[in-house]
Design a protein that fits this description.
Layout: H1 5-14, E1 16-22, E2 29-36, H2 37-60, H3 74-109
Antiparallel strand pairs: 1-2
Length: about 130
């Protein structure tokens, strides 16, 4: 009965291999490593994660972050926020002035609705004037 493909892949990952570094002139073994595919994968993954982490730390905790587009200094961000608040208040003031001027134009041209400014007051009649 033939083995399944998944089972053979697991065995291949666990097989041990030997990596030998030899001196080319004397054929002397300089360094010998016993490796498996799993240990090589784990080692390369660890190196990759460490390099990515060190790169992010280097950018985040050094002045290199100021070279990233869209990232500014703290003073620049606070100044930008103050300007945004100021422009919002100026826009609101302009809107109020426009409403006031529209009301004045309506009054001057006579386009106001026909409403009385005051309400009629019902004055009760006294019988005192008859006496």
């Amino acid at each position: 009965m033939a083995e399944t493909g998944n089972n053979t892949n697991l065995k291949r990952i666990q097989h041990n291999y030997r990596l030998v570094v030899m001196n080319d002139d004397t054929y002397e073994e300089v360094v010998t490593f016993r490796l498996s595919r799993r240990s090589v994968y784990i080692g390369l993954s660890t190196v990759f994660v460490l390099l990515v982490g060190l790169t992010i730390a280097l950018i985040a905790f050094s002045p290199l972050k100021y070279y990233i587009p869209g990232y500014g200094t703290r003073e620049g961000r606070t100044a930008l926020q103050a300007l945004k608040i100021r422009t919002d208040s100026l826009e609101q003031a302009i809107q109020y002035k426009e409403q006031y001027l529209d009301g004045v134009k309506k009054v001057l041209t006579g386009n106001t609705p026909s409403q009385l400014d005051t309400l009629p007051v019902a004055i009760p009649k006294n019988d005192i004037s008859n006496e």
